[in-house]
Amino acid sequence: MSDHGRMHVQREDAEPSVSDDESGAAHAPRRVSSFRSRRSALSGLQRETWDRRWPELGMLVRDADGNLADPVDAQAWFGRSAPLVLEIGCGTGVSTLAMAATEPNLDVIAVEVYKRGLAQLLNGLDREGLDNVRLIRGDGVDVLEHLLGPGSLTGVRVFFPDPWPKVRHHKRRLLQPETVALIADRLRPGGILHAATDHAGYAAQIGEVGDAEPTLRRLSDSLVNEDGTDLPISVRRPVTKYEDKAQRAGSAVAEFLWEKRA
Fold first, then answer.
1. Which pLDDT value is given to residue 32?
2. 242 and 248 Cβ atoms separated by less than 8 Å
């Protein structure tokens, strides 16, 4: 499952590439990308659904010239006023679909770099008839910085971000102090940051970074397996094929929950 990442190839149907110098967006701050290059064509059904539903349910962070989209007006986009949850790196949307189906009272914005993953999620939304999810393709940090305002989110989910296991690549990891501070700023008081990883080294970093953020308070990760009715969002995730494979290979899954202090 992918992390956030900046798009260098700006054609809407192209997959992004990875670069350290961000030369494809000279007007933007230099930022190390956090995703791996991959290319894959959509199936016929995915293309049909994309062409039919994307204009209504999806948007790009940046247009073909690299210009940022306007800030999200969630009430207008969803057609109602409801608590808003951001999922960064939704992959193919397995968790997104399952959790959205059990939380019709919440609106969810799912962010992903890879078009095929978003296309699979779009197919699922179409098949299940769910109307409380919207999709953004592009850099999750761009979304946090430019498309959402302070205190606008009730929850942020980051499930199995790319761990970039080599030491020289740790700078690519999404959950660094600056990003966690940005997430905390976008959460309303009482809002929840929910993260999960199966990489022990990344888990240690995530725990340290989250605990060091003064506006967040760590909650017991046992809440994931409990009712959690006192929380504003569900923290029960479905076990995906990716997670099941990791667990069978002996990788323990670490769950993290933080609450935005009042």
1. 47
2. no
Q: Give me the amino acid identity at 242.
A: Y
Please check the confidence at residue 2 and state whether its pLDDT lies above 90: no
Q: Which residues are catalytic?
A: 162
Q: How many CB atoms lie within 10 A of CB 127?
A: 10
Alpha helices in the chain (DSSP H): 44-57, 74-78, 94-102, 115-128, 140-142, 177-186, 200-212, 241-248
Q: DSSP state, 221?
A: G
- Whether the CB-CB separation of 130 and 57 falls below 8 Å is answered with no
End-to-end CA distance of the chain: 32
Output the six-digit token pair for 213: 């953020």
Cβ within 8 Å of residue 216, ≥6 positions away: 180, 184, 193, 210, 258, 259, 260, 261
What is the CATH architecture of 44-260?
A: 3-Layer(aba) Sandwich (3.40)
pLDDT band at 16 (very low <50, low <70, confident <90, very high): very low
Q: Is 29 left (phi over 0), alpha (psi -120 to 50) or beta?
A: beta
Give the start-to-end residue ranges of the domains of the chain. Answer: 44-260
